[in-house]
Specification:
The protein is α+β, with helices and mostly antiparallel strands and 291 residues long. The protein has a single domain, classed as Nitrilase/N-carbamoyl-D-aminoacid amidohydrolase (4-Layer Sandwich), CATH 3.60.110. The strands form four sheets. A six-stranded mixed beta sheet has the order 5-4-3-2-1-17. A six-stranded mixed beta sheet has the order 8-9-10-12-15-16, with helices on one face. Strands 11-14-13 form a three-stranded antiparallel beta sheet. α3 links the parallel β9 and β10. The mean pLDDT is 97.
């Protein structure tokens, strides 16, 4: 496999789970019709971003994997003969939940699962209330369309996560995402926040000689008196950090070609893996003052 075509589904979510599901499937079918072989949706795309508030009733959204949603999207992948990467609120057992993603192959088989490792706790991003940190480690999934790594949203800010996923053999890292502005902060900090987010994706691509694909949601979502404007800007960077394609603030199906030869070429010319000094990296296992 030297090339493939991927699609990032940048979409708005409503409070109607059924409507979100129908919309997602419709957009997946359109992406497949346009030639996409790998399709990825945003973080927790079946619902509004419920983590804006701490509410026990939101645990009702969680489900087992395999379960109803994974079964449904497995049938979609099988019908369209594509690879699907979807993000789900996973119920591991009563009282224990994860923010997870699964990779489904073109035969409708779940190749594996990744559980979000880094869990934020910021104003209106109260994920620690809902999610236990991942316990499966970092993952790379071997598919007919290349080796695919899956990380999730807050994982985007940690170079260790990208590096370990790349070292597992990934040629593309997909980041299903839900990130945006607090409306009151947008005027003062909005441009800087967005540019930081784009810059860190680009840096992961360069440092690891890997494609990076970040998939965000769009639209203003309200939870009671709270609201977030999700900033879209789903983006793909190539292994040299070049911009392949980027969306704006509107719903979009971002489709682009991936040339895996660029991964090999980048790693040959910029041999960062070769020159790592893992014998002196033990300080990474300590907190800053102890390192």
């Amino acid at each position: 496999m030297s090339k493939t075509k991927i699609a990032l589904i940048q979409m708005k979510m409503t409070s109607d789970l059924k409507k979100n599901t129908i919309q997602a499937i419709s957009k997946i079918k359109l992406a497949a019709k346009r030639g996409a072989k790998v399709v990825c949706l945003p973080e927790l795309f079946l619902t509004k971003y419920f983590c804006q508030v701490e509410s026990h009733k939101n645990f009702n959204y969680a489900e087992k994997i395999p379960g109803p949603s994974s079964d449904l999207f497995s049938s979609v992948a099988r019908e369209l003969k594509i690879i699907l990467i979807i993000s789900l609120f996973e119920k591991k057992t009563s009282g224990l939940y994860h923010n997870s993603s699964i990779v489904i192959n073109e035969r409708g088989k779940i190749l594996g699962k990744y559980r979000k490792m880094h869990i934020p706790d910021d104003p209106q991003f109260y994920e620690k209330f809902y999610f236990t940190p991942g316990d499966l480690g970092f993952k790379s999934f071997k598919t007919s369309q290349g080796n695919l790594g899956t990380l999730i949203c807050w994982d985007q800010w940690f170079p260790e996560a990208a590096r370990l996923t790349a070292l597992k053999g990934s040629e593309i890292i997909f980041y299903p995402t839900a990130i945006g502005w607090h409306p009151k902060e947008k005027k003062k900090f909005g441009k800087s926040q967005l540019e930081s987010w784009l810059s860190v994706q680009r840096s992961h691509a360069i440092a690891n000689g890997i494609y990076v694909a970040a998939i965000n949601r769009v639209g203003v979502e309200k939870q009671g008196t709270k609201k977030i404007e999700f900033w879209g800007n789903s983006v793909v960077f190539d292994p040299s950090g070049n911009l392949v394609k980027k969306a704006n603030l509107k719903e979009n199906i971002l489709i682009c070609e991936i040339d895996f030869k660029k991964v090999e070429n980048s790693r040959r010319h910029w041999p960062f893996f070769r020159d790592r000094r893992i014998d002196y990296y033990k300080g990474l296992l300590k907190n800053p003052k102890d390192a």
